[in-house]
Amino acid sequence: MSPVEKYLTVENEETFEVKIQRSLFIGIIKPLETNPSDILKGVKENYKNATHYCYAYRKVTGEEYFSDGGEPTGTAGIPILNALREKDLYNIIGIVVRYFGGIKLGVRGLIDAYHFTMEKTIEKAKIVKKIVTVNYRIKVTYKDFPNIKRELIKNFSCEIDENFGEDVVLEVKVPISLKEEFREYISKRGVEIEEYGE
Predict the structure, then answer these.
(1) Residues in domain Impact N-terminal (predicted)?
(2) What is the set of domains in the chain, with CATH numbers?
(3) How far is the CA of 187 from the CAs of 162, 166, 181, 196, in angstroms?
(4) Residues 22-46: pLDDT tens digits?
(5) What is the pLDDT of residue 1?
(6) Segment (H or E) for 51
(7) How far is the CA of 181 from the CAs of 93, 173, 186, 194, 197, in angstroms?
(8) Quick one: which of 180, 193, 198, 195 has its CA closest to 148?
(9) Parallel, antiparallel, or unpaired: how do β-strands 23-31 and 14-20 relate?
(10) How far apart are alpha carbons 44 and 94 in whole angstroms?
């Protein structure tokens, strides 16, 4: 899959709880803004002593991953991932925590329970559209700053953070679709530029 330019994700973390055959299922969905293992660690701290922590995530790069978290193969992670795919969500992690209630659900029952829990969690969440951006740091003089800032906003729909020191350092988020045009514009202006991570 090729990287996307625009994508849907959730605005904030959302949770949903449901009891199925005496087992408590807790769905958690949140934007994937840090390492998935760090997010999972936080969930395990918040929901101690659960029987299973199952999850899936999708990134705008096309990377997908899922874990059945100790449930039988294919009964938890894939149903969670499918719920994320059905709503075409990216840069997102969906986690379902299960506290076993004493009744085994069987393969079909587990698939349905995990999918249902994530589906309902997504329904509670606020879905937002985001644009994939590339981050640049550029250094400009105080004299050039007003014109460059105005042109960047007008021509490139940039988000800009300003840092004032000896010169003005701008941290600029440029839509990925305008990356080449932006670099060409900056190089013609003779401005110092550096691309940096998220």
Answers:
(1) 22-120
(2) 6-129 (3.30.230.30), 133-196 (3.30.70.600)
(3) 20, 21, 10, 17
(4) 999 999 999 998 899 999 999 999 9
(5) 39
(6) none
(7) 33, 14, 9, 15, 19
(8) 193
(9) antiparallel
(10) 14
